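Suppose you are handed a protein chain with no further information: no name, no annotation, nothing but its sequence. What can you learn? This example shows the usual starting point.
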Amino acid sequence: MRLSVRSATQLTLLFSAAVMAIFPPGAASVERWYADRLYPIIQANVTSLSNRLPFALFDLAMVVLALTAIAIWTWAIKLARRRQVIRSLWRGFVATLTLIAIVYLWFLAAWGLNYARPPLESQLTFDKSRVTPEAVRTLAEHAVAQANRTHGDAHAAGFAAMWDRPPALVDALHSVERDLGRPRPTVIATPKWSIFSAYYRAAGVSGQLAPFFLETLLNPDLIGPERAVVLGHEWAHLAGFAPESDASFVGLLAAMRSGPAGEYSAWLDLVSEATRQLQPVTQRLVLEQLGPGPRQDQHAIRERLKAVVAAVDRAAWTAYDQMLRSQGVEEGVQNYSRVIELLIGTDVLKIPPSNSQ
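A reasonable first move is to predict its three-dimensional structure. Written in structure tokens, the prediction is:
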């Protein structure tokens, strides 16, 4: 029995997707052939293309995929009413699986293979023994002190507008990339609004790398002091740093090098991230040292987050947790918090010893 061209194509796509999911390529080969050679070319060309359009191509792709799925099942159900029911529905099922396989292979080729790269700590001088509860408290206290110090200059300098690409942050990201041995600078994506902004609000999402067209999408409700560190994080993803901890590490370093507004944005973010890992009593003692200016900015962030819908938040983070684990990130969404380990274990911030008892 000869297969039709359509059936052969479907089988090829399904088989390819299954192989990539079950037998992912090794870290060394991904780093050598994809991260160092292929991905920079893909990223430069795809992001340059998407930057030419004022709307998010990701949004268009999601609408087209949804309409395609609806069309497949409309066709399958109509066919089932006229012909063999089981065969018609099976064809609809196979067509849906093929669509999913196409999306999955597209995701891997455009960006997703970056998850298989060696972890960032393997490229740095990382000492796990540095990461202690005392070191976390020292980092939290240092972040509080630096947020207090930089608050005035940051607000005096002003924060970038929502959809700007701050030149200082772009230059700072390229500087961090050079330090980490990137073969070529990342083509920066222009921040865009998305039709999924309501979802971002409800799920508490600050921003997103849209992988299919390598775009940067932002929650339009972000306040000024958040923008530099969120942009730095999403642009680090764009640079190929897939795990959340790696992107946060690169984004924080970039923000700290980008002038008063970016430096303050980074330290304010670290205040929240580091104190979140402290015991409640210690957390309260450390946060008591935070000045009125940073407190006011934290209050504005909490006000923004009141738009979060608990059920949507739980569903979104559960789904994202499963997605991260499926791509080899064993900690799932807990990977976000590993940025504190990276900062302490590499000692990139050169934090002086704490005087706390």
